[in-house]
């Protein structure tokens, strides 16, 4: 009997771990299923943005149980991939042990958009952009 393949470990980083990386964690966990262990963190952890929770709920993905985490919680842990989804996180991303492949996708901060309806739409656009990137990336693995 063959052993089950080991799950890939993926860490997704952004600045506050409140919007982009939270949506990315939920999306990748949903799309990859049992193939990956997915985590997210930030260089300045805060709280999960309610607009991120709503944007993901519109896709049927519940991220309301996720919490904002500082990247220090993951230092010293091995990852197969470290994905940064904002420029600030890419610049301050530490070196992780092992052979973690670093991937950078730059997405604007939807929380910076003014006005409730415009902000909700900005979150949807980032969500949809992340989903497209993840679908294409998963096809290459």
Structural commentary:
The chain is α/β, with parallel strands linked by helices and 141 residues long. It has four helices and four strands; from the N terminus they run βαβαβαβα. The chain has a four-stranded parallel β-sheet with strand order 2-1-3-4. The chain has helices at 20-32, 50-57, 87-92, 116-140, and strands spanning 8-14, 36-42, 81-84, 101-104. The model has no long low-confidence stretch (mean pLDDT 92). The radius of gyration is 15 Å and the shape is globular. Helix 1 (20-32) packs parallel to helix 2 (50-57). The two termini are 24 Å apart. It has one domain (8-132): 3-Layer(aba) Sandwich (Rossmann fold), CATH 3.40.50.
What is the H/E string?
A: EHEHEHEH
Please count the helical segments: 4
CATH architecture classification name: 3-Layer(aba) Sandwich
Would you give the CATH topology? Rossmann fold
| Proportion of strand residues | 15-25%
CATH H level: which superfamily? Response regulator
Helix/strand-derived category reads alpha/beta
β-strand number: 4
Rounded to the nearest angstrom, the radius of gyration is 15 Å
Main CATH class: Alpha Beta
- Tell me the overall shape: globular
- Major sheet strand order: 2-1-3-4
**On the 0-100 scale, what is the average pLDDT?**
92
Share of helix, binned: 25-40%
Distance between the termini: 24 Å
Domain unit count: 1
**Major sheet size, sense and barrel closure:** 4 strands, parallel
* Low-pLDDT regions: none
Domain Phosphotyrosine protein phosphatase I: 8-140
Organism: Candidatus Thermofonsia Clade 1 bacterium
InterPro entries: Ptyr_pPase (IPR023485), Ptyr_pPase_sf (IPR036196)
Protein name: Protein-tyrosine-phosphatase
């Amino acid at each position: 009997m063959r052993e089950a393949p080991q799950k890939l470990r993926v860490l997704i980083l952004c600045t506050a771990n409140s919007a982009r990386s939270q949506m990315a964690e939920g999306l990748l966990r949903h799309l990859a299923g049992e193939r990956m262990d997915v985590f997210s963190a930030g260089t300045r952890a805060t709280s999960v943005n309610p607009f991120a929770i709503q944007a993901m709920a519109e896709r049927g993905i519940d991220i309301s149980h996720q919490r904002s985490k500082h990247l220090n919680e993951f230092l010293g842990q091995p990852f197969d991939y470290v994905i940064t989804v904002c420029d600030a996180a890419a610049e301050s991303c530490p070196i992780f042990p092992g052979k973690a492949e670093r991937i950078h996708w730059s997405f604007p901060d939807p929380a910076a958009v003014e006005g409730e309806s415009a902000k909700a739409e900005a979150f949807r656009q980032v969500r949809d952009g992340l989903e497209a990137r993840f679908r294409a990336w998963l096809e290459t693995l």
